[in-house]
Amino acid sequence: MIDTSYGLLKGKKGIVFGPLNTQSLGWHIAQACHREKAEIAISNVKVALRLGEIEELSKLCNGAPIILCDASSMDQLETAFKEVKNKLGKVDFIVHSIAMSRNIRKQLPYEDLNYDWFTKTLDVSALSLHKILSQALKSNSLNDRGSVVALTFIGAQRTFSDYSDMGDAKALLESISRSYGYRLAKRGIRVNTVSQSPTKTAAGSGIEGFDSLFDLADELSPLGNADAEECAQYVVTLLSDLTRKVTMQNLYHDGGFSSIGISDELLARLSKQSE
Ligand SMILES: NC(=O)c1ccc[n+]([C@@H]2O[C@H](COP(=O)([O-])OP(=O)(O)OC[C@H]3O[C@@H](n4cnc5c(N)ncnc54)[C@H](O)[C@@H]3O)[C@@H](O)[C@H]2O)c1
Fold first, then answer.
1. Hey, which of 25, 73, 153, 216 would you mutate to test ligand 1's pocket, going by the most ligand atoms within 8 Å of its Cβ?
2. Which CATH class, in words, describes the domain spanning 13-273?
């Protein structure tokens, strides 16, 4: 945990959707935004109050308002943005750090998914970005020259079999981000996705074989896996004015994993095994 602040978000307001507990990427992002002097609200589903530690996070972020809302419900989002406007005013940034797949939780094979759950995965993990932005615009809650960041994973581009329907959801999320990025550019608003390394969080650890994937990515990434705190530090740069011309991008924050073929160390080990 770093305590240096560069004041990168001084004078800015924003909402972070998806912090649950101290492991969550959204938790670290909320704290980093607070540290960089932004005024924030945090949002999650109602059950997160009981299952998570968001009241604690609110205290750590100077009493940040907690907005309870299912981000896949247009009605709840409409109410949520009214609440945000009352408590915080218009915002300069929105962070989407939301994902959920019952098919992954129940370890159903990709060839035999439950389609109601598949639809729910797409709705909660991808369409929610569309719905959040749609309601933010309808309620005139988003300032010009703002920034929107959603968290994604390289499973959108490459197949990791246990990532299942979430790979499809992430591909849709990244596409929605580009589609909005084009439309909101007229107002100087950027929309990007950050493709993060495997990270040990509630959502991450729910994936079968996650620990092996984590270790493989860590070994292959020239800089090693990026952790949640490093992710938060990267995200605040994208929310700041330092990145005004970055939009419609899927930005890898993964220690180089997305560009590596095979590392010398792994190749040497495999060669030794086959001797
Ligand atoms: N952990 C990883 O390895 C990893 C890697 C790359 C990207 N990501 C992405 O980062 C984001 C955050 O995940 P995390 O790993 O911090 O796990 P997490 O479980 O801490 O966060 C996921 C959040 O989504 C929330 N959520 C679920 N359904 C919701 C709904 N209907 N409305 C609003 N919120 C809802 C959960 O309550 C939870 O707070 C996700 O988009 C995830 O796919 C995670």
1. 25
2. alpha beta
pLDDT digits (tens, 9 = 90+) for 193-238: 999 999 998 888 878 889 999 999 999 999 999 999 999 999 999 9
pLDDT, tens only, 89-110: 999 999 999 999 999 999 999 9
> Can you tell me whether residue 13 is helix, strand or coil?
strand
Task: Please enumerate, as own/partner, the contacts of 216-220 that have beta carbons within 8 Å and a separation of 24 or more.
Answer: 217/254, 217/255, 217/257, 218/255, 219/263, 219/265, 219/266, 220/257, 220/260, 220/262, 220/263, 220/266
Tell how far the Cα of 221 is from the centroid of ligand 1, in angstroms: 23
Place of tokens 């218009």: 90
List Cα–Cα distances, 175 to 71, 119, 130, in angstroms: 18, 17, 10
User: Distance between CA atoms of 176 and 181, rounded to whole angstroms?
Assistant: 8
192 C-alpha to ligand 1 centroid (Å): 17
